[in-house]
Write a structure and sequence with these properties.
The chain is of the alpha+beta class. It has 5 helices and 7 strands. 31% of the residues lie in helices and 17% in strands. The strands form 2 sheets. The protein has a 4-stranded antiparallel sheet, with no helix packed on it. It has a 3-stranded antiparallel sheet with strand order 2-6-5, with no helix packed on it. A hairpin with a 5-residue loop joins β3 and β4. It is elongated. The two termini are 34 Å apart.
């Protein structure tokens, strides 16, 4: 089985730089690196979403619903040449019945300016039959603060189709409070191994976990 590998929210060096250094003084370098990976995954579990940078996440969404207000009376609006051609193509396809939006599961709940998306790939498996790989040039997004992806006018995407998405993302710069939460979770895990009763180092494992959860609850889905 392949080992879990990621860029942790806080590193072993971060943990050893503060008062928790004494807790991990007997840990090997590899064990401490693994501890920070485990703590990062626990943070993501509490938050209910991915936080650390990730690659090639795969999602599938069912195309449903359209905005009934979109492009009503659009024929009377001035458009450039590309918009005119897109409208003509959309009308030929019956685009009024097409879905134009999808929202990715993973996005920045806070500090979207620190979040990064890359390598977006979208494939449509149409409810009418057939499939299409959508070019990135015909998409707007994804938006870091919502995960919203907007399909260009004229995309043949009937309601009920499956939208398969692959993308990279995550916090390219880790918010400071997430780094703190990761260290708190790591320290709590260490105490669970070497001092579960909380008598040797004077740290209360429950207090550490509660502090981490107080931070991570702000990153939970709303």
């Amino acid at each position: 089985m392949a080992a879990d590998s990621l860029v942790p929210l806080a590193t072993a060096t971060d943990l050893k730089a503060g008062q928790f250094a004494d807790l991990v003084r007997d840990y090997s370098t590899s064990a401490l690196d693994e501890l920070m990976i485990e703590a990062t995954r626990q943070c993501e579990g509490i938050a209910g979403r991915r936080l650390a940078p990730f690659t090639a996440v795969q999602e599938s969404h069912r195309a449903q619903g359209i905005d009934p207000d979109e492009y009503a009376d659009a024929g009377s609006m001035p458009m450039d040449m590309q918009g005119t051609l897109g409208t003509s193509y959309a009308n030929a396809l019956g685009a009024g019945d097409q879905v134009r939006h999808v929202w990715l599961n993973e996005y920045a709940p806070r500090y979207p300016e620190l979040w990064n998306y890359a390598n977006l790939g979208v494939t449509i498996l149409r409810s009418y039959g057939g499939s299409q790989t959508v070019t990135v040039a015909s998409l707007l997004g994804p938006e870091a603060d919502s995960g919203h992806v907007w399909f260009g006018l004229g995309t043949f995407l009937p309601v009920g189709s499956w939208i398969r998405v692959t993308y990279d993302g995550g916090y390219s710069t880790v918010p400071a409070d997430l780094g703190r939460a990761c260290k708190l979770i790591a320290a709590s895990d260490v105490l669970g191994e070497i001092d579960p009763a909380g008598t040797q180092f004077g740290h209360d494992r429950g207090v550490l976990s509660a502090q981490a959860e107080a931070i991570l609850c702000k990153y939970q889905p709303t």
